[in-house]
Amino acid sequence: MELTPIAHFHSLFTSKFGIPKQSGLVEELEGKIVFTPRFRNPDALRGIEGFDYLWLIWEFSANKSKATSPMVRPPLLGGNTRMGVFATRSPFRPNALGLSSVRLSHVEWETDQGPVLHVLGGDLMDGTPIADIKPYIVYADSHPEARSGFVDHTAIRRLQVVIPPAFAARLTPNQLAALHKTLSLDPRPHYQNDPSKTYGMPFAGLDIHFRVCDDVLTVIEE
């Protein structure tokens, strides 16, 4: 099977570092889906505005190395415990395909790039190729009583986040809320815990630098 991108995702994240590890964890994150010229046909989107959520099938295009192991180390388990690749959502897979559920904010029907989908809660890097889009259907896709394996027994760790007011003023209210929640999820590799180390990531055109001491993440103005 040869997959041809139908669209590309546009995000506040221009690198992998810092991106939430699952869609929906940061509901405030804004993104745009811009279709390739071949698929800029409004007829292909007819009826899509009637759905609140969409499934995105996309490529882990930033992964440079091929997956070679049947086992991976999920970050949620601290990065040391091995699980089967098909029992996780690791980006290192035999076929580098991701699956994300995003909220459809609105459709911008007339732009220089054809119809554009505005979505919330994505976990995709800027420029990510999208292979397909499907509507989220409650009666088929929602299973609220389902078990979630090791995820059920592992709480997501959240940090207290301190952002200096002068730095916060450089972001829109929505961007600030998205950054705050993103940082609270602790973007660091799970095997690193050096309070003197400064980490950095691009976000909304800014370079975000921060340190973590105990359970407090502080953004540093540099």
Write a concise keyword list for the protein shown above.
222 residues, mainly beta, Elongation Factor Tu (Ef-tu), domain 3, 2 domains, six-stranded antiparallel barrel, four-stranded mixed sheet, 12 strands, 30% strand, globular
Sum this structure up briefly.
This protein is mostly beta strands and 222 residues long. It contains three helices and twelve strands, in the order ββββββββαβααβββ. Strand 11 and strand 12 form a beta hairpin.
The percentage helix is: under 10%
* Total domain units: 2
Poorly predicted segments:
none
- How would you characterize the largest beta sheet? 6 strands, antiparallel, barrel
Portion in beta strands: 25-35%
Say which CATH homologous superfamily of the largest domain is assigned.
YaeB-like
Report Rg.
18 Å
Give the CATH architecture of the largest domain: Beta Barrel
N- and C-termini, Cα separation: 48 Å
Give the strand line-up of the largest sheet.
1-2-7-6-3-8
Provide the structure class: mainly beta
Specify the overall morphology.
globular
| Number of strand elements | 12
Arithmetic mean of pLDDT? 93
| Secondary-structure element string | EEEEEEEEHEHHEEE
At the third CATH level, what is the topology name of the largest domain? Elongation Factor Tu (Ef-tu), domain 3
Number of alpha- plus pi-helical segments:
3
What is the level 1 CATH name of the largest domain?
Mainly Beta
